[in-house]
Amino acid sequence: MSRPLRLEYAGAIYHVTARGNERRAIFRSDADRRRFLEKLEQLAGVHHVDVYAYTVMLNHFHLLVFTARGNLGAFLQQFNTSYTMYFNRRHSRTGHLFAGRYKAKLVEGGDYLLRLTRYIHLNPVKVQERRNLPAAEQAAYLAEYRWSSYRGYIGLEPRLPWVKYEALRAFPDSVPAAAAENYRVYVEEMLDDEDEVILGARNRSSKAIGSEEFCRHVDAQHREAMRGALRPIDIAARRAECGVPVERITDEVLKMYELDERELFRRGNREAKDMWLKLALEEGGLGQRDVGVRFGHADGTTVSRRLAEIAAALASDRNLRRRYEDLRQRIANSKA
Fold first, then answer.
1. Counting beta carbons within 10 angstroms of the beta carbon of residue 197, is it exposed (0 to 12), middle (13 to 18) or buried (19 or more)?
2. Is the pLDDT of residue 236 over 80?
3. Alpha-carbon span 146 to 173, nearest angstrom
4. pLDDT (tens digit, 9 = 90+) per residue, 17-49?
5. Alpha carbons 118 and 167: distance in angstroms, whole number
6. Quick one: 192 and 250 in the same domain?
7. How confident is the model at residue 237 (pLDDT cuts 50, 70, 90)?
8. Neighbouring residues of 318: CB distance < 8 A, sequence distance ≥ 6
9. Model confidence over 265-280: pLDDT tens digits?
10. Nearest to 159 by CA among 264, 83, 52, 259
C-alpha cells in the first residue's frame, strides 16, 4: 500500500504526532528525552523549520512546526530515523520504534494556532491518570513538567533559542512577563474543561485543522493531488508551467531585502512580502488560493485585495516599481 500523500509548501504550519510501535515507550530515561530534543534542535536548524511548540510524552510526541521551505517530509524522515537509530543503539534493540508514518495536519494559523499550542501543552495532564486531578494539582504538574515548551512560554525557564514562541503574539500589547502570565491563564482555563473549538477543528478533516472553509480547501487540494492534477509534494504545481520554482523566487526576495527565510511569512516586512506574493503569482504560477493558504488565509480573497493595493502602489511609486522590475529580471534570468 502506498503512503498517504502529504501536502507540502513554503509557509505551511503543521501539527505533527508520532506514536511508539504497539503504543510502547519511545523514551526509557531522561537521557533519551534530552537526546530527542537535541536532535530536534539540530535538524530543525538544518531544514530551516521553526518549532512553535512541543510536548514529549512516554509513548508519543506532539510538534507544532512552520516549514519555510515546504520540506516537512525530508525534515521528519531524517529526524525520526536519527532518533530511532540512537534509541536502538542505546537500548540494544532492532526494528521500528514508531508505529508507521507520522501524522501531520495542516494548520490554518491565527486563533487555531493559539488554541493548538494550548492543546499540545495540556497533553501531560489530559492522560488517564491525571485528567481527574484537581485543577490546582494539574497546574502544578504542568509547571514542573520539563519535557514541553510550556515552561518557556510561561517564563518558568529561559526561552530556548530554537523554539519560536509564536502563540505569545496573541498578547501583542503586553510586556514579555505579562504575555507569559496571560498565556498561563489562557492554558489553565482548560484544565478542567475541553476546548470545543479546537476539538471540532481537529475532527473536521483528516488533513487539516482550521475553519470549515480552510479544511474544505485543503481536502480539495489533496483530492486533486491524488488524481495527479498537482505535483505530489506541493499543492502549487502550476509553477512547473512557467519553470520558476517558488524557492528561487523566495531566495531572490530574501537577498534583496536582507531577510532570513523564516521572517518572510511573519508580520512585518510588508514590502518584501508583497513582492513575494506578486512574483509567486506571476512568475511562480501559483493561484491566489494557494498563496492565501501560505499566509494563513482560508482562500484567495485577501490575496486578491492585496494584489489591487500592490498594483496601486507600483503605479504611484517609481522606486518601488524599479525594485519590482529588478526582481523580475533576476528571476527571469534564472529560467535560462
1. exposed
2. no
3. 28
4. 999 998 999 999 999 999 999 999 999 999 999
5. 9
6. no
7. very low
8. none
9. 776 778 888 888 888 8
10. 52
pLDDT at position 289 is 65
**62 SS3 class:** strand
Q: Does a structural domain hold residue 229?
A: no
Give the best-scoring range by mean pLDDT among 108-112, 114-118, 290-294, 303-307. Answer: 114-118
| 126: its cell numbers | 489530559
Q: How far apart are CA 15 and CA 122, in angstroms?
A: 15
Which range of residues forms the domain containing residue 113?
12-203
Q: What is the CATH number of the domain that holds 244?
A: 1.10.1750.10
Q: Give the number of domains in the chain.
A: 2
Whether this model's pTM surpasses 0.85: no
Is 174 a domain residue?
yes
* Helical residues (DSSP H) of the chain, grouped into ranges: 30-46, 72-90, 111-122, 135-144, 150-153, 176-188, 196-203, 212-226, 239-242, 246-257, 270-282, 288-294, 301-316, 318-333
* Cβ neighbours for 1, distance < 8 A, ≥ 6 positions apart: none
